[in-house]
Amino acid sequence: MSIVVGELGFLLKKCCSFKHIHQIHGFMILRGLDGDNFLLGRFIDACFSLGFSNYGYSVFEGRSQADVYLFNTVIKGLSKESASEAVVVYNKIRLAGLRPDCYSFPFALRAVMRLEAVELGRQIHCQSLCSGLGWNIHVVTALIQMYSSCESVYDARKVFDQVSSKDVACWNAMVAGYVKIGQVENARLLFDQMPERNVISWTSIIGGLAQMNCPSEAIDMFRRMQMENVNPDEVALSAVLSACAHLGALELGEWIHNYIDKHGMDKTIPLSNALIDMYAKSGKVEKALQVFESMKHKSVITWTTMISGLALHGLGREALEIFFRMERAKVKPNEITFIAILSACSHVGLVELGRFYFNIMESTYGIQPKVEQYGCMIDLLGRAGYLQEAQELVRQMPFEANAAIWGSLLAASNTHHDSELGEIALKHLMKLEPWHSGNYSILSNIYAATGRWKESGMIRKMMRDKGVKKISGWSSIESKNGIQEFIAGDISHPLSDRIREVLCKMNEQLKVAEECAEILEADE
Question: Which class is 197-297 in CATH?
């Protein structure tokens, strides 16, 4: 029997087409192997893995004496692509006179997660308790994941706290649950309490911090991970590269690139995409292009990231050339690609080309413009001075303009000294962003530029009356000890005295240099 099992396992590993599946099924029937639920389960699992779920399910339905293992195999396979059917099969377990085991519940809960049906999840939770498996660690972990996925993190925490013996997977599930709904502080507190951590633990917290726009904290956590000698995986490295891109932390980004090469890690498409994004946002466009050109396989995200990176640095024509190559490679653009294209057109003032792509998005590519694409087009028109057309496009939009769109029009009115448009834009921004000081300042500057000093003063007075405070500017710089952040007017930095001392010396040297230049000019 073991020889036959080995043969079947070998055949299933080599299987890659429906013809192969059909031949293996015939092989099993001729030898009576289809009567063994374990072997049939392996065959059905292969069917689902290769995308022949209908065939696998039909084989299961034809089996009159299925056991729980066979039911679990089918529920697992269906949970990935037909969650409602997976729940139906789960419910048939009891109808067949069987009892769900510690694998049935997690597979069924996985289907619930896809359906986002928390009430159904509660029913399965009750059933697990009635069966005596409610505190099985595999079931508990699945329940935490299910409640967290359905944004019922309070229920997830209740389940978590009621378990006395938790493994690392259980802790990871709860940390990931907090991360999913943006409760990063709770995720960090729980992470610090973990008696044991693995690479998934670190990846969850680093990825969560990066996603929640806490790049400095993500990088600090990555450094902690290194100090504890935990080797990062692809997901952790991608998350840190995203944080590096946000902060322009080029030195750390290059170190990660070298780490990937040194350890012979596979440069998967997502990881390469993260490298392109990091280099582009850190100002190293040539390095971004090197990574891009070295990739044998490129996804739509790869092309889009490269186009966005070039557009970011005002290289609009180069960005459009990448898009033309993308079309020649027959990679279908997505809605984010068009944001990048319109942004590229905006940076180099290619209004006609921008209009062309905006107008063919739906007819040629089947992508209906959303508020983001409208915003890019309005920004393009505003920058180029087509203010009336930009306003008309706002009126034609099938949805309300957001703060980004009115902000674009306010900026355009400042560039082209159109106080009337500035007043309209600010009126809407006061409702959408009442405490954003920059909006008031722009209109005040427009009035000042056109000699309307009284109106300029009124805007400043309006800011004072409403209690709108000017937001302090900030900057960051990468050093050997991490990312150093500075806020204008803030003296709380531990090295602020030393920094002031260096700045004073720099000012003195600049003054001396200016005086020397004046003397040389006088001599000439």
Answer: mainly alpha
Domains 197-297 and 400-485 equal at CATH topology level: yes
The CATH T-level fold of domain 400-485 is 1.25.40
- Rounded to 5, what percent of the chain is helix, strand, coil? 75, 0, 25
From first to last of its 524 residues, the chain has per-residue pLDDT tens of 554 566 676 777 777 788 888 888 888 888 787 888 888 888 888 889 888 889 998 989 888 888 999 999 999 999 988 899 999 999 999 998 999 999 999 999 999 999 999 999 999 999 999 999 988 999 999 999 999 999 899 999 999 999 888 999 999 999 999 988 888 889 999 999 999 999 999 988 888 888 888 888 888 889 899 898 888 888 889 989 988 888 888 888 899 899 888 887 767 888 999 999 999 999 999 999 999 999 999 999 999 999 999 998 889 889 999 999 999 999 999 999 999 999 889 888 889 999 999 999 988 899 999 999 999 999 999 999 999 999 999 999 888 888 889 888 888 888 888 888 877 887 777 777 766 666 667 667 777 766 777 777 776 776 666 665 555 555 556 555 555 565 555 566 667 777 777 878 888 788 777 777 776 666 65
Burial string for 311-348 (b: 16+ CB within 10 Å, else e) reads bbeebbebbbebbeebeeeebebeebbbbbbbbbbbbb
Amino acid at 121: G
- What pTM did the predictor assign? 0.70
